[in-house]
Amino acid sequence: MSTGPRYTLHARQEADISIWQELLVGFELVQLRLSSTFYGLGVPHGHGEAVVLIPGFLGTDTYLGDLFSWLRSIGYRSYFSGIGWNAECPNLLIRKRLNETIKRAYASTGQKVHLVGHSLGGIIARSVAGQRPDMIASVTTLGSPFRGPVAHATVLKASDAIRNRILREQAGRVLPGCYTEDCTCEFVASLKNEFPAKVAQTAVYTKGDGIVDWRFCVTGDPAIDCEVTGTHVGLVFNPAVYRVIAQRLSMHAPHRPMNGRESTRMNVNHINA
Fold first, then answer.
1. Residue 204: how many CA atoms within 13 Å on its side-chain side?
2. How many CB atoms lie within 10 A of CB 264?
3. Given 8, 21, 151, 249, which is the most exposed site by the fewest CB atoms within 10 A?
């Protein structure tokens, strides 16, 4: 199983992208409801494996409801992260809440847990995998800039506001560099280390991303990176993304070797909606 390089996290930077294209997210939601994929047709099904979903920056578990229900409909035991509003120190979110959800999923199924994270949620998922590789089967990131916080100016301003609130409200409980790539907490340290070889990884990205620079959402390994067409926000409603998730989860399920046809499908690293 391949493993990505140890990344030097790129410094925070404003991305030259148009946020207005994110208004097209509604079309992706309509496409999803009209697709056969949403009804579990034409995709491999699970056998009760646990999948924990992690929301993105400023998001809660609620907006992942369609993905949560769909995973259950195709045979997986899906779990919301339980982290609440993703506008807190990621290190605290992992230690206080997310780890408990993962432990519960692991104990309930008796198998390693799959993590699917959107945007910042995917970065959190990669950090967790680095910290607890013996409990994590795979990590799937959806538009997650794990190689550095390169995003639209509006997102960076919102991030500054959240960082200031964290430093004010969590004084004495977080490090001075909290919510930056310079922090020395376990969350950031895990991202700087080599991704664990025993954990499978998938990085889904879209060149139509209006929130973060897609080039920082990929590993550079075509066996890991998977391009879809759509928006950043819409990655959680995109039928092409759902197909990728179903295929990758099946590919990395324990005791279930891929057949030849599935293996051929996974060699395609661009999937249209």
1. 34
2. 10
3. 8
> What pLDDT does residue 7 have?
57
Q: Which domain holds residue 65?
A: 13-271
Residue 166 in tokens: 């964290």
Residue 238 contacts residue 28 (beta carbons within 8 Å): yes
Burial of 58: CB neighbours in 10 Å, binned 0-12, 13-18, 19+: middle
Residue 244 lies in a domain: yes
Read off the CATH number of the domain in which 25 is found. Answer: 3.40.50.1820
pTM score? 0.90
Task: Give Cα 223 to chain centroid, integer Å.
Answer: 17
User: Model confidence over 191-202: pLDDT tens digits?
Assistant: 999 999 999 999
Domain count, the chain: 1
Decide: helix, strand or coil at residue 235.
Answer: helix
Domain-embedded: residue 5: no
In a domain, 227, yes or no: yes
Read off the amino acid at residue 83. I
Asked if the structure places residue 159 within a domain, the reply is yes
Q: Is the dihedral of CA 86, 183, 143, 92 positive or negative?
A: negative
